Amino acid sequence: MEEAATRGSGTLYDPGSFEPQDGALSSRDPLSWEGYRDALDAARSSSAADESVVAGPARIAGHEVELGLFDFTFLGGSMGEVAGERLARGLERAKERRVPFILRTATGGARMQEGMRSLVQMPKVVAARLGLSETGTPLIAVLGHPTTGGVLASLAALADVTVAEAGATVGFGGPRVAEAFTGRPLTGISHTAETALGSGLIDDVIDASGMRAYLARALRTLAPDQPHETAHAPPTVEKREEKPDAWRAVAAARSTQRPLGFELLLEMSESLIELRGDRQGVDDPSIDSAIARVAGRRMVVIALDRERVPGPGAFRKARRCLEIAARLHLPVVTFVDTRGADPGEDSEAAGIAWEIAKLLEELLAVPVPTLSIVIGEGGSGGALAFAATDVLLIFEDAVFSVIGPEMAAQILWRDKSRAEEAAGRLKLGAFDLLRLDIADGVLPEPVASGPIAAAIAYHLGRLSEQATSPAEHVSKRLERWRDRDAH
Predict the structure, then answer these.
(1) What's the confidence (pLDDT) of residue 356?
(2) CA torsion, ordered 347, 348, 353, 356, to nearest 10 deg
(3) HEC sequence for the chain
(4) What per-residue confidence (pLDDT) applies to 276?
(5) Rounded to an integer, what distance in angstroms lies between the CA atom of residue 126 and that of residue 34?
(6) What global pTM score does this model have?
(7) Cα torsion angle, 164, 170, 172, 174, sign
(8) Taking a C-beta distance cutoff of 8 angstroms, is the pair 107, 147 a contact?
(9) Positions of the chain with pLDDT under 50
């Protein structure tokens, strides 16, 4: 059976490590479909597999996992009762063993010859997926060619990390179904892995020959924490000898020479896998996000890119990251560096204010430790939605303001040329935020990955030790932001 499972997916796991389970399960004929039993026998003979799915324990680059592998040569990789049951049992074994579940699909969807008995495998595997989530165990989906129908619209679409093989057909309805339903031919870019990536529906497209290396990196990133020693707090600055110049700080915060958040993450991380897209049709490039390993600890990192303005998709993308963090019990780190949310016409029509509010709500409620570091500019509510965390740090020359100084000057005096004056009045500098009891610490310039990694290690370690439960993380955070008293 393992030999059959290697078709299209054998390079995923270490040779000889895969142990398919549940071989005694055998497909029935619930609809008494004429010729179905003969078709099953023919599929077993031609594909050398006993079903469209095999599942069981395996190793990938030495990491223990549970695998669920589809074989498209067996009745088009369709999911019938046996396929669904094997997937559900595999997910349950992954939960029990606390090892990642790796799903590799190659399927046309539900098995029509089993009718609704086939279709109800969708909620069956989703129920098992929910059980996996209870233990913070990762689910990684590899979408092979093709991946369509109910398999995609259930288990595959609910993975924590989703990648597709280059050139794979990916879509709910297969191309023939879509054309028959709509009565129109598809465009050349429809139903492709590459289009799914551009639409924010998957995290990456990887050549099949490189998939095992990708999974090895993902599993290395997601392996249990081995935190580095963090006995001492990272250096901070209590005050500046000379009086800070607000306008100079604004210029410094916006400097093109200042490192971007994701560049810093790449420097400091031991390994990472990027999280792309909001799963609603958009991958807003104004934020970069990843599951990363820093100082031996796993975390979800969300980095704003000051060179781009975040629209509604950016806030949805960040919320997806928070969902993953909550499900996998990973702390969240944000790098704030943006002039603010996109106030343009399209952004307004797409509900930018609603998306900011939802992200702010979910960041306050996520049941894991949270840390925000302002590395450049924090502009208005669009930036604060990424910064309402357990700990808020800011670099000496970074700024955070209720509104950008240019816009403040325009609103107050209808004169943008008075932006420098507005900057001084807004008290937007790092030491102003410290004095106003908004920031918890000021990090010394220059912005660099070393001090940031040290701050992350110290504060996440401290936060993890202080809270006795996920609920306590939330209650302390709500208390922190609720107690911003008026004076």
Answers:
(1) 97
(2) 0
(3) CHHHHCCCCHHHCCCCCCCCCCCCCCCCCCCCCCCHHHHHHHHHHHHCCCCCEEEEEEEECCEEEEEEEECCCCHHHCECHHHHHHHHHHHHHHHHHCCCEEEEEEECCECHHHHHHHHCHHHHHHHHHHHHHCCCCCEEEEEEEEEEHHHHCCCHHHCCEEEEECCCEEECCCHHHHHHHHCCCCCCCCCEHHHHHHCCCCCEEECHHHHHHHHHHHHHHHCCCCCCCCCCCCCCCCCCCCCCCHHHHHHHHHCCCCCCHHHHHHHHCCEEEECCCCCCCCCCCCEEEEEEEECCEEEEEEEECCCCCCCHHHHHHHHHHHHHHHHHCCCEEEEEEECCCCCCHHHHHCCHHHHHHHHHHHHHHCCCCEEEEEEEEEEHHHHHCCCCCCEEEEECCCEEECCCHHHHHHHHHCCHHHHHHHHHHHCCEHHHHHHCCCCCEEECCCCCHHHHHHHHHHHHHHHHHHCCCHHHHHHHHHHHHHCCCCC
(4) 97
(5) 30
(6) 0.93
(7) negative
(8) yes
(9) 1-6, 487
Q: What are 91-145's pLDDT values in tens digits? A: 999 999 999 999 999 999 999 999 999 999 999 999 999 999 999 999 999 999 9
Instruction: Quickly tell me which residue has 């969902």 as its tokens.
Output: 323
Predicted pLDDT of residue 231: 56
Identify the pLDDT of residue 485.
60
pLDDT at 128: 98
Instruction: Output the pLDDT for position 10.
Output: 56
- What's the first-to-final CA gap in the chain, in angstroms? 72
